[in-house]
Design goal:
3 domains; 12 strands; D-Maltodextrin-Binding Protein, domain 2; alpha/beta; about 20% strand; Arc Repressor Mutant, subunit A; elongated; about 300 residues
Length: about 300
C-alpha cells in the first residue's frame, strides 16, 4: 500500500495556491531544485502527472485538478490535528481587558474563534475605563488590553485600527445651532472628553457636562432621557442611538486609534493567538462596520 508524503502534498498545494514552484519552495524553506524533486516524487506515488508546464508557468493537469481537493484536505486535517494537540499542553488563563463599547462590538466573533482554537483554556475578561486598563496591563494584571488612544497620540502599544469619533444622540434628534451643548461623558479625563471640549471651545460654543458616570450603559440611559449628547465611535452604539451629523449643528471631531497593549514579557502562544484575532477583527471593523454606520448617518 502506497503512503503519500505529507511534505510533498504541502508543496503541491502551495505551488497551486502561490502560483509557482519558486514561491512554494521559498514558503517551505527548500531550494527550487529540491522542491522540483519532491513534486516528481509525489507524481510517482500518485501514478500520473499532476502539473504541466504552460509557457513559463506550471498549471494543473486534469489529474491534478481532481487530486487537489483531497491533497488540500489532508494538509488541513494534519495541521488542525497538530494544533489541537499542542493546545492541550497550553496553560491558562489568558487575561484580556477591553473598553466597554468595543466589547459589545467585537467580542462575540473573537471569543468564538479563540474557544475553537483553545478549547481547554480559560479566558478572563475585564471591562473598565481606559486609564485603568492601561495601568493593569503595565502592572502585569492583564495579558492584553484593547483601548482607545488619541490619534495621533503618544500612547504605547500597537495601533491596529482607526475610527472616527462622533457625537451620539437619540435617532432623529438634532441639536439647535448655537445653543449650549450638554455633554454626557465619563467622569474624569479621557480622550473623548478632551476631543469634544476642544472642538466646542475652538468654535466658541458654550457647553457643560450635564451627566457623568463610570458606566457606559448609564450614559446611554442618560442620552435616551434627553440629558445631553455623548461622544464615542460608531462601534457598539445601541440600536436606538446613533451618530449626529457634524455639519448639522456641531463641530467635527478627530479620529481615535485602537491600540493593543501587551503586558511586559508576554510570550505565550495563546496570548499571541488572541492578539492576532483582536487585530484581525479590529481591522475589519475599522474598514467596514464603522464606515457603513457613519455613511448611514450622513445620509439622514
Amino acid at each position: 500500500m502506497r503512503n503519500l508524503d505529507l511534505a510533498c502534498l504541502r508543496l503541491f498545494v502551495l505551488t497551486v495556491e502561490k502560483g509557482g514552484l519558486g514561491r512554494a519552495a521559498e514558503a517551505v524553506g527548500r531550494s527550487q531544485p529540491a522542491a522540483s524533486l519532491q513534486l516528481k516524487r509525489l507524481e510517482e506515488e500518485v501514478g500520473e502527472p499532476l502539473l504541466r508546464r504552460q509557457g513559463r508557468h506550471l498549471v494543473l493537469t486534469p489529474a491534478g485538478e481532481d487530486f487537489l481537493p483531497a491533497a488540500r484536505q489532508i494538509v488541513e486535517m494534519h495541521d488542525a490535528a497538530l494544533a489541537r494537540r499542542l493546545t492541550t499542553r497550553l496553560s491558562g488563563p489568558v487575561r484580556l481587558g477591553i473598553a466597554q463599547d468595543l466589547a459589545d462590538a467585537m467580542l462575540t466573533h473573537v471569543l468564538a474563534e479563540f474557544s475553537r482554537n483553545h478549547p481547554t483554556l480559560e479566558l478572563l475578561l475585564r471591562t473598565d475605563k481606559m486609564g485603568e486598563l492601561i495601568e493593569a496591563t503595565r502592572n502585569g494584571e492583564l495579558d492584553l488590553a484593547l483601548v482607545f488612544e488619541p490619534d495621533p497620540g503618544a500612547g504605547t502599544g500597537e495601533v491596529i485600527g482607526r475610527l472616527p469619533m462622533c457625537w451620539v444622540g437619540r435617532r432623529g434628534d438634532i441639536p439647535q445651532p448655537g445653543g449650549e451643548v450638554r455633554l454626557v461623558a465619563f467622569d474624569g479625563a479621557c480622550c473623548f472628553n478632551r476631543a469634544a471640549e476642544q472642538a466646542l471651545a475652538g468654535e466658541g460654543r458654550a457647553w457643560r457636562r450635564s451627566f457623568t458616570s463610570a458606566s457606559l450603559a448609564s450614559q446611554w440611559t442618560a442620552i435616551r432621557a434627553g440629558l445631553g449628547i455623548g461622544i464615542r465611535t460608531p462601534l457598539g452604539l445601541p440600536h436606538d442611538l446613533g451618530p449626529i451629523v457634524p455639519a448639522a449643528a456641531l463641530p467635527a471631531l478627530p479620529a481615535v486609534s485602537l491600540r493593543l497593549l501587551r503586558r511586559p514579557g508576554l510570550t505565550s502562544r495563546a496570548g499571541q493567538d488572541l492578539a492576532t484575532l483582536l487585530r484581525m477583527r479590529c481591522q475589519t471593523l475599522s474598514m467596514t462596520g464603522a464606515a457603513r454606520t457613519v455613511g448611514a448617518a450622513s445620509d439622514r
